[in-house]
Design goal:
Blueprint: E1 6-10, H1 16-26, H2 34-46, E2 50-57, E3 65-76, E4 81-91, H3 100-114, E5 120-122, H4 128-133
Parallel strand pairs: 4-5
Antiparallel strand pairs: 1-2, 2-3, 3-4
Length: about 150
């Protein structure tokens, strides 16, 4: 981090309010539901294949959350082993361009590598230049189908 002391750590149950506030900033495709978040958060923390990272500014007088990353590891035949998948990443606007996103991605890459993952992948519409700068390459189109109401 260029002008602060950024800390990346695993989120805990005590971070629910912080992560919920950040996740509400990310929500675009679906309206943020605090009730759905409250149901999902403990399950994410308990899932052995999930990695929920929190970025916080630890500089004196700050200490606030600046972003989070939610990722998973899962087996994949095409990669001949497990892969890491970044499901969600958000860095607050005033922190973009200051190293927080890079630090979150780097921490997830290390977490995935420690678990034997062959690659890390993600889908994005808005941040392709950021991921290219981190060495990511475009690989496939992303299709989705919303199920249910």
């Amino acid at each position: 981090m260029q002008d602060s002391q950024l800390q990346i750590r695993r989120a805990t149950a005590a971070d629910a309010e912080t992560v919920a506030a950040l996740a509400a900033e990310l929500a675009q495709s679906f309206p943020f539901s605090r009730a759905a978040f409250d149901r999902s958060y403990p399950a994410v923390l308990a899932a052995g294949n999930a990695c929920l990272l929190l970025a916080a500014d630890s500089a004196a007088g700050h200490g606030g959350p600046v972003g989070y990353l939610l990722g998973f590891q899962h087996p994949a035949f095409f990669a001949n082993g497990p892969v890491g998948w970044v499901e969600e990443i958000l860095v607050r606007g005033c922190w973009r361009g200051r190293g927080a996103g890079r630090a979150l991605i780097t921490a997830f890459e290390q977490h995935s590598a420690d678990r034997g993952c062959r690659l890390v992948a993600l889908a994005t519409r808005r941040a392709a230049p950021f991921y290219r700068a981190l060495g990511y390459q475009e690989s496939a189109a992303y299709f989705r189908k919303v199920l249910g109401a």
